[in-house]
Design brief:
The protein is α+β, with helices and mostly antiparallel strands. The protein has 5 helices and 5 strands; from the N terminus they run αααβαββαββ. The chain has 2 domains: about 70 residues; about 120 residues, Histidine kinase-like ATPase, C-terminal domain (Heat Shock Protein 90), CATH 3.30.565.10.
Length: about 210
């Protein structure tokens, strides 16, 4: 049986239900927009497309990317999501996958915490939807200058760089916005992200 976080108190259940519904709506709408984006990519790859039309389609493509980003910002970046709520959200996404999730690392500065939450949601969604994985894990290791966050699964690996889906592009963009260094190793035996989070990104000088 998949791991499950503790059952929320009745007083918070309505908020948790809204959170789960929002995640499902986000997944559907963002996926539809991504499909439109990929169809535009196919048009841009057509060698017979005129230069003027190519420029217009590229502009539309960039607009779609920005709409998706803004939509995700509205959901993730305008809501302070607690670690408990994050666990609930991740458990809904990973309902068919065995998982171990440790989110007890020191709290980050507000913007960094929100962006990292978005990354973790996207990584979990990629595992659940595309990897064929049976297990998923979030853990971390403490170091003198910060922490190393490890996110891994035992799926079939990531697509080639030329075929990255929009979620993976968003992950890279969010980590760059935070300013985190990261490494991604992927093979037919699974994928692991190693995300280095320095002390300067912590909410305070919390001991680790």
């Amino acid at each position: 049986m998949p791991n499950r976080p503790p059952t929320p108190a009745p007083s918070s259940q309505q908020g948790i239900d809204r959170l789960a519904l929002t995640a499902r709506l986000h997944e559907t709408l963002a996926q539809d927009l991504a499909v439109l984006g990929f169809r535009l990519d196919e048009l841009l790859a057509d060698s017979t497309l005129g230069r003027e039309h190519r420029a217009e389609i590229r502009e539309i493509r960039l607009s779609i990317v920005e709409i998706i980003r803004q939509f995700r910002d509205d959901i993730y970046l305008t809501n302070n999501r607690s670690r408990d709520e994050m666990k609930v959200s991740l458990s809904h996404i990973l309902e068919d996958v065995r998982f171990t999730i440790d989110l007890t690392y020191p709290p980050l500065q507000t913007q960094n915490e929100r962006l990292l939450n978005e990354v973790l949601i996207e990584l979990a969604r990629n595992t659940a939807r595309h990897s064929g994985a049976q297990t998923f894990e979030i853990s971390y290791q403490s170091h003198a200058d910060g922490i190393e966050l490890l996110v891994s699964d035992d799926g079939l690996g990531l697509p080639s760089p030329s075929r990255k889906n929009l979620g993976l592009i968003m992950i890279d963009h969010s980590l760059r916005m935070i300013g985190c260094e990261y490494q991604c190793s992927s093979s037919l035996e699974g994928t692991i992200y190693r995300i280095l989070i320095p002390r300067s990104m912590f909410l305070s000088e919390t001991s680790i």
